[in-house]
Amino acid sequence: MEEQNIYIWLIGALLVIYFVFTTWLGKKGAIHSRTMKGFSIAKGKVNPWIVGVSFGASYASANLFLGVPGWAYTYGAPTLWWTLGCFGITWLGLLLFTRTFWRQGQKMGGILTLPQWLGKKYNSKLLQVMIAVLILFNIYYIVGQNVGLATMFETVMGIPYTWGIAIGVIITIVYVSLGGAFAQLISDGIQGIIMSVTSVLLFISLIWTIGGGWNFLGKLQSDLAAIDPNLVQPVATSGPFHSGFAILTIQWLLFSFVLLPHLMNKVLTLDDEKQLRPFTLSAGLTLFFLSVLSVFAGMAARVLSPGLAAADGAIPTYIMEAFPPIIVAVIVAGLISAILSTTDSLYLGITSSIGNDLYKTLVVPFLYKDKQLSKQEIDKKVVKATKVSLVIIGIVSLYMSIERPASLALLTQFGISAIISGIIAPISLGYFWKYAHKYGAIASVIFGSGTFMVLTGFEIVPGVFEALFYSSIIGFAVMIAVSLVTAYAIKSTNNKLGNRTA
């Protein structure tokens, strides 16, 4: 009990410092968040190296520090397929998608969100609105972060689960509403550095927790094999890594992960093509530190603390055994940073889309159709609506988080996969295929995401990742088919009109 009181005071003090700092950042960024451009992307206001670290920090959610180590605790070595994919496959996706996305965004001009990028690309307001609605599924991702934060507070500090959720929601909403993208990017950049140090500490600690000197990984392998030989096999007997095909579908998710709106918005922040190089380099380095190292602590927790009631508590339990209170406090602060850095990006991405793609596109023309408002006046109303939606989304996510899910990792992947299955074909084919058409893109969103809902909702496919893979394939097939039919119909119509004119 006395040790837990020490944790409460130390971590509480760090949280107070964090809250003061982020509030200061929010006020500092307030000058940039008076317009939608400043609030949603803070274009050109933040160093590209920091934006890259912010990308990695936003990517490394509670899932990477709690959910995936929870998988490592349960399934052992097969979880490494996930972490290796996070670094290598995701970074490859970033390198392939970023430059073209940025260049086309510059040509379109005034792009603030991914739905707007797609709407301009295909000249379709309907597509823009559909993608904006689809992005609302990211609330499941926010719920995952809330649950991870509450789990951390509950395990280490003894704070009730619901109070932990409320603390995270309040802190994040305050500084995002004040400073928008500027505050989010700077705070995430700092958090990414703290998280990288935390990951290195977790990995190094295996030397004294597992033992074996410099052969601590070999010792960990032998200890896991002694518990269950399946824990050191390349493929698990159950769960997400139960087959080679299942592992390939996971790599597909991680490759397409960079297309998520709260991550691609980071690319729109850059105002010069030369900034893409430092951005992608710092993002890649951050991804390596954050995705690869912490999973080993999850496996070590299986050796040191077998029989945990909840696998997602593996990392909090491990650090309390591995480090003295002052280091535990610092590491917990780093883990909390991992959670908040994703949460603030998600809040910003969802609410920016609500304001820019839904409110401005659907509501403004209806409410103010008879008023002669300037662009600046409209922009102010959109910013206000965006900040109001931030509070509403925060309250909704808090309510949805009250009941703890069975698996944090699977919860976060559900919302992500629903979005990816709808947008991957329109974005990818829009890059290079000259026949890509707006009707094909619209059909792809409907059938891609719709198929995912059906496959998971009716449990037709047992795994989320397999469902995403099948849904993405259907999304590509439908878009190609509809685009070709549309192109043929347009060509036939033009030929008929030409013949009549002749």
TrEMBL record:
UniProt-annotated location(s): Cell membrane
Coiled coil (residue ranges): none
Bilayer topology term: Multi-pass membrane protein
Principal localisation: membrane
Transmembrane segment boundaries: 6-25, 46-68, 80-98, 126-143, 163-186, 193-214, 241-260, 281-302, 322-340, 382-402, 408-432, 439-461, 467-490
One Pfam short name: SSF
The keyword Mitochondrion appears for this protein: no
Keyword Transmembrane: yes
Alphabetical list of CDD domains matching this protein: SLC5sbd (cd10322)
Catalytic activity: L-proline(in) + Na(+)(in) = L-proline(out) + Na(+)(out)
Keywords: Cell membrane, Ion transport, Membrane, Sodium, Sodium transport, Symport, Transmembrane, Transmembrane helix, Transport
Family classification: Belongs to the sodium:solute symporter (SSF) (TC 2.A.21) family.
PANTHER family per UniProt: SODIUM/PROLINE SYMPORTER-RELATED, SODIUM_PROLINE SYMPORTER
Name of the molecule in the record: Na+/proline symporter
Species annotation: Aquibacillus albus
